[in-house]
Amino acid sequence: MKLLIPGPVTTSPEVKAAMAQDFAPWDNDFRKLYEQVRARVLAIAGGAADTHTVLGLQGCGHFAAEAALRTFMAPGDKILVPLVGAYAERMARLAREAGRQVVTISVDQNRPLQAKIIADALAADPSISHVGMVYSETGTGVIHDPAPISAVVQAAGRRLIIDAVSAFGALPMDVSAHPALDVVIFTSNKCFEAMPGLSFAVARIDRLDACKGNAGSWSFDYADVYANLLRPNSAGVFRFTPPAQVLASFSVALDLFERDGGQPARLARYLANKAALYDGMIALGLEPCLSRALQGPVIVNIHAPDDAAWDLMGFVDRLKQRGWLISNFYNTPEPSFRVGCIGAITSDDMRAFCAAVDAVLADMGIRNRSARRLAA
Amino acid sequence: MKLLIPGPVTTSPEVKAAMAQDFAPWDNDFRKLYEQVRARVLAIAGGAADTHTVLGLQGCGHFAAEAALRTFMAPGDKILVPLVGAYAERMARLAREAGRQVVTISVDQNRPLQAKIIADALAADPSISHVGMVYSETGTGVIHDPAPISAVVQAAGRRLIIDAVSAFGALPMDVSAHPALDVVIFTSNKCFEAMPGLSFAVARIDRLDACKGNAGSWSFDYADVYANLLRPNSAGVFRFTPPAQVLASFSVALDLFERDGGQPARLARYLANKAALYDGMIALGLEPCLSRALQGPVIVNIHAPDDAAWDLMGFVDRLKQRGWLISNFYNTPEPSFRVGCIGAITSDDMRAFCAAVDAVLADMGIRNRSARRLAA
Hints:
2 copies of one chain form a homodimer. Helices cover about 40% and strands about 15% of the residues of chain A. By secondary structure, the first copy, chain A, is of the alpha/beta class. In chain A, the strands form 3 sheets. Chain A has a 7-stranded mixed β-sheet with strand order 2-8-7-6-5-3-4, with helices on both faces. The longest helix of chain A is centred in the C-terminal third of the chain and has 22 residues, at about 260-285.
C-alpha cells in the first residue's frame, strides 16, 4: 500500500525498520542521537549554532504551532494570520484559544500570498506584534514564499512565525536570511519521510531568552524546552518521555535525505512527482483545481468528475484495493479529490497511480470526467 | 538489550513489528482500529459506554496531565496536590503554569497517601475544587490506592483527577466505582507494554459536556477531542495527525494483555518480578529504599553502596555492556539506583539481572555494599 496523502507519507523500509526497537530516552547513546539530529536539522535550516537552536516536541504539528504561538507571543500580543487555507485557519484558532489576540485577513487562497497585503495590514494596525504564515498550505496545494513576507514584517518591525509543516525539507529554508523570524516549525512525517509523533522548531536563541514566562503552559513552553537542554543534569534530553522510535526513524530518514542530495534533490523528486500526476490527470480528462503555474509540489487537488456515478468514498475504496491510499475527505469548496506528491515515492509511482485512477473511473461507470462546479 | 526502567519498557517482538508499517490516520480501517482500542480500554477501566469515554492524545503523560487539568478545572479552580513524589510535583507545576490555583501539602513520601490528610485539607479550604493524585509514584516506588482518597473527595463534594501513568493496566482501576473521578490518564508505554508517543484519558461524559470552554488551549481540550469524535464527518478520527504506528503497537499490546489474562495476570507477573529483584538485591547485600510492605511492583529504588568506588554512571554503563539498561539519574534524596519491574520481562530476567549486578559490583571493586546514607 502506498500513501498519496500530504502526510503521514509512505516511508522507506529502512525508516520502518528503525521503529522496531526499544529505546531508553535518557540513555547516553540516545542523547547523542538526539543531539546529532538537532545539529543536522540546524544545518538544513541554515541556522548557526550561536543564533539558532532546534527543539523537539512530542506530538503533532498543531502542538508545535501552539507552542510557538504561546512562547513567542506574550499573552497581550496580537498576531495577523492571512487566511490562505485550512491550516492558516487552524493557526488562528490555536492562537485565539491560547488567549492571544488574532486578526485574520481573507485572501485569494488560490494564489501565493501577496506581501503588499501584509505590509498594508501591519501599517494599519501598529498593535500587531506578529505575523503567522503557512509555507505550504495543504488545503489548497499553494506554496507561499516566506521571503517577501519576511521582508515586509522586518521592515515594519514585527516578528514572524512560520508553519513549514509540509514544506521544510523539500522547499528552501534559510533561517539566517530572515531576522524577523522567531521560529519555524515542522514535523517528522512530511517531506523528511519519517514517521509521525514528533515535531521540531528552529528558533532564535535571543528570542527564546527574551520570551521566558510567556507560554502559560509548561508542556508548550519552548523557552523551558531550551533551558532544559542546557542544564548539566539533563543536557541533550527531552523533558518528558519522547516517542523515541520516531526520533530513531527520523535519524535514518535524515541519512536517506542527505544520501539523496538534500533539499534540492528532494524538491526535484517532488516536482517530478507533481508533474507526472498533473500531466496524467489532464491526459485522463480530469481537471486539477490549480493552474500549472500556481500548483505546488506537495499536494494536488483535482476536480471531481461531473457525473452522477461519482462518489468520493467509492473512488477512495477502489483505489485502496489497488494499493493506493488518498484522502477520503473534501478540503476545497468544490468537490475534489486530493493526491499527495510527497513521501518515498517516485514519478513512476505517480504514473502507475494515474493508470489506477483511469481503471477505477471506468469501474465506477463514470463517463463525464470534466470538472463538477458549484452553481454560481 | 532489556530496559529495566519505569517506561518506556521492554516490548515484545509482536509490538515492535507493529511499528514498522505505514498508516493513513483518516483511513477507515485505521478509524476502526482506534475505535476498537477505545472500547477495549474502556472495558479494562470498568467504564460503561453511556457514562465514560476513552480519548487519545498525541504525546506523553505530561501532556495528558495538562489536558486533564485544563479541561476539568475552570481557570479559577483550585487543586490540592499531595506531594507524594516527583510526578506529583510535576502535576502541581503543570496546573500552576496553566493558570490554575494550586495548593500542595507535604506528606511522608515513603508510605501510601493517608485519606485523612486529604479530608482535613478539604475541610480546611472549601475553595478547593479538585484533588490531583498520582497512583504509582515512580519517583519513590510507592503505590497510592485511589479508593480511600476518592471516598473522601466524594464525601467533601469535590472532584478527583488521577495520574495512573505507571499504574493503569497492572494495578486495579474501576472508574465506575469512583463517582468523584473526572478523569484518569495513562500512556501506551508503561504497564501495557507498547511504545511511547500516545496517551489516553478515561473521562466522565457528563463532566466533558460540563467543561466545554475551560481549557484555554485547543490542543489540550479534552472536551473538543470528545466533541470531534462525535461529529459525523470526523467520527472515530484523531483531530490532528496521531502517531499511528504507536496506536497499532498499542493494539497488538492489548492483544497480548488479554491473552495473558488481563490486569490480574499483569500485576501477578510484576509482583513476581519485584519479589525476585527485591530478594535478589538483599541476597547481594544491597538495601532497597522501601520496606517490603511498602514496596510497590513498578519500580524499586536501591541504596547506593557505601563505598568510595561507587559511581552511578560507571555502574549503569557496565550493566549496559551486559545487556541491561537502568536509569542513569538519581530520583531520591539519598544516592540510589532504580530498577523497573514492568515491561515484557519475567522474574527469570530479574534473577539474571541480579547476577549481572553482582558481577558489576565486583568489577568495580566495591567491597562495602551496605547503604550509603546522607549525614543527618
